[in-house]
Amino acid sequence: MPIFRFKRQSLGEGFSDFLSKESRSVSSFSERKESPFRRTYAVILSFLVFFALSGRLFYLTVVRGAYFRNLSENNRLREKRIEPQRGVIYDRNGIILARNIPIHKECQIVNEDQVCHFLSPDKALQYEAKGEKIFLSLGREYPEASSSAHIAGYIKETTKEDLKDERYALGDWIGATGAEEAFENLLRGFAGKRLVEVDAKEVEVRELGRVEPISGKNIYLSVDNVLQKKAASLLNGKKGAIIASIPQTGEILVLHSSPSFDPNIFVGGSGEISQVMNDADQPLFNRAVSGTYPPGSTFKIVVAASALEEKKIDENTKINDTGIIRIGQFSFSNWYYTQYGKTEGEIGIVRAIARSNDVFFYKLGEMVGEDSLIEWAKKFKLGTKLGIEIAGESEGIIKEERKIYLGDLYHLAIGQGDLSVTPLQVNSWTQTIANGGKMCKPTIVRNQKSEIRDQKDCQDLGISETTIKLITEGMKEACSSGGTAYPLFNFKIPIACKTGTAEFGDPKNKTHAWITAFAPIDDPQIAITVLVEEGGEGSADAAPIAKEMLKSFFEESGE
Hints:
This protein is of the alpha+beta class. It folds into 3 domains: 37 residues; 144 residues, Penicillin-binding protein 2a (Domain 2); 268 residues, 3-Layer(aba) Sandwich (Beta-lactamase). 36% of the residues lie in helices and 22% in strands. It contains 18 helices and 23 strands. The strands form 8 sheets. Strands 2, 3, 4, 5 and 10 form a 5-stranded mixed beta sheet that branches. A 5-stranded antiparallel beta sheet has the order 12-11-23-22-21, with helices on both faces. Strand 8 and strand 9 form a beta hairpin. It is elongated and about 140 Å long. It starts with 15 loop residues before the first helix and ends with a helix. The N terminus is likely disordered.
């Protein structure tokens, strides 16, 4: 068969018509010659591509199908946490000390950590108007602010250490101090969760499932908010502490440390935090349970109990007040002799307590001896934590590692020397005399409205009725005409009290002012202890505060 079926007139090799015909002729021949091979190659290539794609499809849908299905679901499904409502903290009469409020935060990831900044409501509205992402969560408000700061406490945001507990997530709130920390497990509750579908822009499309959170429990503290506020106003920023309790149960009615602080700053992100943290007066320090001080003459309650119980003296024992005792080159005087150059003459235990006679108690310390005196101090829980729920309680100090000489024993017998206690401990041994010799564990929980503590926890120290009666009589006379606590003379309700002026530092002209008391004497309803740090004398500086506190208590109770 000829290749060309007709012949056209050629214009010559130099023209395009010639070139075009030659090119078509050669190309057509070549295609006819190679087309079977090309078809075979194309078929083989198609099969290879088909098998490769089929294999890949099998791998993706069968071998790794579950993985990619899960990945796809996760790309559009989100599990979101629902914060539980934190329990509300009330005082014994139902006044709110801590409650929940909404707060706004702006959060960023910095070095793999979430860093958040608090926003005011106005600022949060501005951010929302700009379309910026902000976070809404439950915060905390303390309506009574500084008056109840050390007992209610405050909350803080969780740290990496807190996240070891699976109940918490980054950015959660957790109790940091006071009742917030002590009862965290009850107040906290349990978080819920939501399963939601989101679009490519992370906008929530719909909710697919929900597990409701379990709210925390509300708790009632034993404190009386009216008395708390009164204590705060009386100390008025002076360094010191006031503790009041119910002798029969150990329930704390007042626990105020001064100076105090506003716990709301820890939830609102206020710039005041650094100011409070760096304050030289240490407002965050809880002087009521953590501060330790020489007890001064308030310790004579313990010394009197030891001497009477060890049968070293009785109600008829008399000791002559010489005004001063000399041991070699050292002298130990009575305060009355030092200030006025006078002596008391022969006095017994009741008068010695009423007048806080140092010479009498020097001799008691000598009679009882080092070992028995320290043993009785320990019976009254000195050197031991009393077990109040608030963290940071100090044990106090009573030195035993060195030999105590007679002069040291004299100092110990009047509450000086190698001895320091907390205001809580002084209040505790006052309770013990008030309730007939039983030491009750202090608690900040109201018994009648609590699942935490159903009954009082008291230990009988085995002190005789006679000892209790004599000490009580001495404390009663201390608050009566001729005693040391002159601001409490003629109070409308019979009071038993003991003042204390404790020296500290060098030179010996610095003193802490103490008073500890209970009332009414026949049916004690309150035991109160006041410490004014670096405050002067117990009678002049602490007693007036105790008087106003007792007045408020009995007015509130209608007596």
